[in-house]
Amino acid sequence: MIKVSSADFQRNIGRYQDLALQEPVTITRNGRPRTVMISTEEYLRLRRRDREAIRPEEVTEDELGAIMEAEPPTEAQAHDGEWPADS
């Protein structure tokens, strides 16, 4: 992902619009990520996925096996204990 300061983004907006067609462009302010520019195509794809749902019977045995074998990433350990059942 490309990162650019808001000042540089303002000076070169056309360049970053073109780059956002290929990959997300993170726009920072005071060194912190503030917004992300993506292509319209990617935005629409993400919007469609928001509404995508599958029925349990549509899950294949291979997909179910992959789900059952999946392990959370190491970073997820930071959230251990957040649910009452984890206590």
Describe it:
The protein has 87 residues and is of the alpha+beta class. The protein has a single domain, classed as YefM-like fold, CATH 3.40.1620.10. It is built from 4 helices and 3 strands; from the N terminus they run βααββαα. Strands 1-2-3 form a 3-stranded mixed beta sheet. The radius of gyration is 19 Å and the shape is flat. The relative contact order is 0.10.
What's the short story on this structure?
It contains four helices and three strands, in the order E-H-H-E-E-H-H. With 87 residues, it is an alpha+beta fold. A three-stranded mixed sheet has the order 1-2-3.
Keywords:
three-stranded mixed beta sheet, 87 residues, YefM-like fold, 39% helix, alpha+beta
Chart the SSEs and their pairings.
Blueprint: E1 2-5, H1 6-11, H2 13-20, E2 25-29, E3 32-37, H3 40-50, H4 61-69
Q: Average pLDDT value? A: 91
Strand order of the largest sheet: 1-2-3
CATH architecture: 3-Layer(aba) Sandwich
User: In terms of quaternary structure, what is this?
Assistant: single chain
Gross geometry: flat
Estimated structural class:
alpha+beta
CATH superfamily: YefM-like domain
CATH class: Alpha Beta
How does the major sheet shape up? 3 strands, mixed
Roughly what percent helix? 25-40%
| Secondary-structure element string | EHHEEHH
For the terminal residues, how far apart are their CA atoms? 37 Å
Strand residue percentage: 15-25%
Low-confidence stretches: none
Question: Quick one: how many beta strands?
Answer: 3
Into how many domains do the coordinates divide?
1
